[in-house]
C-alpha cells in the first residue's frame, strides 16, 4: 500500500469514529514493513480518559502486538497533526516517520487545537498556568531511582 492509501485509512477511522460519536475526529495506524500492525481512534468521549488519543491507542496496541516499546522500524499515519502528548509518546516509542493529513492550524479552526498546550510547555515552569511543586524527596525512606540504577548493573 502507498502512503496515500494508509493515510486514507487513518482518515476513514477518524470519520467513522466521529460519526459514531465515540470520540473526537482522529484516527491513527502503525505500519511495519508495509503492513498495518495496529489502529487507534480517539476514545476520549467514550472512556472519559483524556489520554485516549488515536496515536496513543495505536502505539499501545503496536507495542503489545510486537512485544516491545521500540517502534523504530514502524511508521505512524495520523489523521491530524499530533498534539504535544502524542508527539512525546512518538519520541518515546522511537518512531522515525510520522505522516499526518490535517494540520494543527486546521485542528485549531475546528475547535480541536492544542496551541494552548504547546504555548504553556514553552514557558518557564514558574509562568505556566499549572504550578509544578517539587517536594523534599529526602523525607522518603526508599529511592526508586537508586534501586533502578542498582538493578541495571
UniProtKB/TrEMBL annotation:
GO terms for biological process: purine nucleoside catabolic process. Signal peptide: none annotated. Pfam families: dCMP_cyt_deam_1 (PF00383). CDD domains: nucleoside_deaminase. GO terms for molecular function: guanosine deaminase activity; zinc ion binding. The keyword Glycoprotein does not apply. Keywords: Hydrolase, Metal-binding, Zinc. Gene3D superfamilies: Cytidine Deaminase, domain 2. The keyword Iron does not apply. PANTHER family: CMP_DCMP-TYPE DEAMINASE DOMAIN-CONTAINING PROTEIN, CYTOSINE DEAMINASE FAMILY MEMBER. Belongs to the cytidine and deoxycytidylate deaminase family. This is Cytidine deaminase. The lineage of its organism: Bacteria, Bacillati, Bacillota, Bacilli, Bacillales.
Amino acid at each position: 500500500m502507498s502512503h496515500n492509501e494508509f493515510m486514507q485509512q487513518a482518515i476513514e477511522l477518524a470519520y467513522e469514529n466521529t460519526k459514531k460519536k465515540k470520540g473526537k475526529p482522529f484516527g491513527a495506524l502503525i505500519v511495519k514493513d508495509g503492513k498495518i500492525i495496529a489502529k487507534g481512534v480517539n476514545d476520549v468521549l467514550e472512556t472519559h480518559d483524556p489520554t485516549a488519543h488515536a496515536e496513543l491507542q495505536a502505539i499501545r496496541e503496536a507495542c503489545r502486538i510486537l512485544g516491545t516499546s521500540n517502534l523504530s522500524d514502524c511508521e505512524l499515519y495520523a489523521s491530524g497533526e499530533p498534539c504535544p502528548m502524542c508527539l512525546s509518546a512518538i519520541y518515546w516509542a522511537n518512531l522515525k516517520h510520522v505522516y499526518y493529513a490535517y494540520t494543527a492550524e486546521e485542528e485549531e479552526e475546528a475547535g480541536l487545537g492544542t496551541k494552548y498546550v504547546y504555548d504553556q510547555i514553552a514557558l518557564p515552569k514558574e509562568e505556566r498556568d499549572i504550578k509544578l511543586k517539587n517536594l523534599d524527596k529526602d523525607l522518603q525512606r526508599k529511592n526508586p531511582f537508586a534501586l533502578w540504577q542498582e538493578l541495571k548493573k
